[in-house]
Inverse folding.
């Protein structure tokens, strides 16, 4: 479980987050959603420790993240996996070297064990046999999968994903979502995904945090989204004319399902 | 990982810069010889002094300073762009989240590689530039092989070679650390990355010239 407690964050005089309190639950796919500029990425970067909040605390289970000493921090870091929006795969390394990187840096595993783990992780994301390719030689969707493989290589307890579906076609995006939820369920990890993809919200949102202008505007799960009368949520979910049309059709049919 | 990265950087800096250093050094030596030949005409200075002048000019000043200025342009801008690009593509964030000490992982191998390879490149530059001076002097017919070699063997002070290496290590440290700093703290997009790369070169060259003067005053003044 990860808990954000009274998080405020300002850049110069621009207050981006204005008091966020939210609990990201273990063994669930937690989503941070909201319009561009709502503060999603800033919150995610605070959760992983890339930004320090102006005030407020982040709790990893019972540990105050920003009060940890160096050794405790490294221990937590080794339990964190992250998938970046741009994948952040190292260009000068092959796919295998990218996935091995955390093991090379922090473990004393033998070459054989590392190779076995790399093969398992690649198999887990259905990317067997691309070990020796460079990131520039594979597609965006494949890079996402390799990014996931690298994120899970040290068997993380906490998995973060920043806009995992950006730049992907809807079908690949659904596959990536399914992969992230499967990994979450299999390993009972706390997964936090920053997204504005409606498919993700409706398919994998076990615990959703809606940000609006730096504040928590709504919280709930995917089953509660359509039932909610929160205007900001409805505005966000039914932003596209196509979905608005579907919604008005459903309402004209007596409020039945879409 | 540090070892592998250091070897990669050594290859990039050393082998990657060898050709340009050889070409530039050859011409610097040749031009120095030609111009000193012109200045020595009609003077009472013995003709074999040309070898002595070329040797000491190259060893004490031109081989090391020219090489390091060129390396600031080539290696310095490359380092700033590489680290800056990693910052912009979130590679540095990815490493930090993994718990990697990024300043150490990204800077140390580059610094070590530069401290090892740049003095070697400067040694090559010194030899090649003296060779350039020799060819320009003897093939033009202004001096004989014997005159040039006699000059090369005259008044040799081993301490001058030490000065060359002191300068090489100092300049290598300056150009690498400035480039790493500019790349590591880059913010914004491609325009800022270009500006950081330019700053790495401009500040690097200015600092090298200041350090050159200070070393000259301290060690030969």
């Amino acid at each position: 479980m990860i808990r954000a407690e009274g998080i405020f964050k300002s850049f110069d005089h621009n207050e981006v987050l204005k008091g966020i309190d939210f609990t990201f639950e273990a063994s669930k796919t937690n989503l941070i959603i909201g319009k561009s500029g709502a503060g999603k990425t800033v919150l995610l970067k605070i959760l992983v420790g890339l930004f320090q909040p102006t005030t407020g605390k982040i709790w990893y289970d019972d540990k105050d993240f920003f009060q940890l000493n160096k050794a405790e921090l490294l221990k937590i870091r080794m339990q964190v996996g992250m998938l970046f929006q741009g994948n952040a795969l190292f260009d000068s390394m092959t796919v295998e070297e990218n996935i091995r990187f955390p093991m090379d840096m922090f473990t004393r595993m033998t070459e054989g064990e590392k190779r076995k783990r790399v093969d398992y992780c690649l198999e887990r994301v259905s990317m067997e046999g691309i070990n020796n390719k460079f990131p520039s030689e594979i597609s965006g969707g494949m890079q996402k999968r390799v990014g996931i493989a690298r994120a899970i290589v040290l068997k993380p307890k906490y998995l973060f994903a920043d806009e995992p579906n950006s730049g992907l076609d809807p079908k690949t995006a659904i596959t990536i979502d399914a992969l992230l939820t499967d990994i979450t369920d299999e390993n009972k990890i706390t997964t936090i995904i920053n997204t504005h993809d409606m498919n993700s919200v409706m398919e994998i949102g076990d615990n959703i945090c809606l940000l609006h202008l730096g504040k928590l505007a709504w919280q709930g799960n995917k089953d509660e989204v359509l039932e909610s009368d929160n205007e900001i949520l409805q505005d966000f979910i039914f932003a596209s004319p196509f979905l608005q049309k579907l919604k008005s059709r459903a309402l004209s049919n007596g409020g039945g399902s879409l | 990982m540090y070892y592998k990265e250091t070897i990669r950087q050594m290859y990039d800096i050393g082998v990657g810069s060898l050709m340009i250093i050889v070409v530039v050094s050859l011409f610097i030596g040749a031009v120095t010889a030609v111009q000193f030949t012109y200045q020595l005409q009609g003077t009472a200075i013995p003709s074999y002094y040309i070898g002595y002048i070329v040797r000491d000019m190259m060893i004490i000043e031109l081989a090391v300073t020219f090489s390091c200025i060129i390396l600031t342009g080539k290696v310095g801008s490359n380092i700033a762009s590489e680290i800056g690009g990693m910052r912009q593509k979130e590679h540095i964030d990815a490493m930090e989240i993994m718990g990697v000490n990024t300043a150490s992982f990204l800077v140390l191998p580059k610094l070590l590689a530069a401290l090892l390879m740049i003095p070697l490149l400067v040694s090559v530059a010194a030899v090649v530039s003296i060779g350039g001076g020799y060819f320009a002097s003897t093939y033009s017919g202004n001096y004989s092989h014997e005159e040039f070699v006699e000059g090369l063997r005259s008044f040799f002070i081993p301490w001058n070679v030490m000065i060359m290496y002191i300068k090489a290590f100092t300049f290598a440290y300056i150009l690498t650390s400035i480039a790493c700093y500019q790349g590591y703290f880059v913010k914004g997009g491609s325009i800022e990355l270009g500006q950081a790369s330019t700053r790495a070169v401009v500040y690097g060259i200015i600092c090298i010239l200041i350090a050159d003067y200070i070393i000259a005053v301290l060690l030969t003044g």
Observations:
- The mean pLDDT of chain B is 94.
- The first helix of chain B runs from residue 2 to 40.
- Chain B touches chain A through twelve residues (CB under 8 Å).
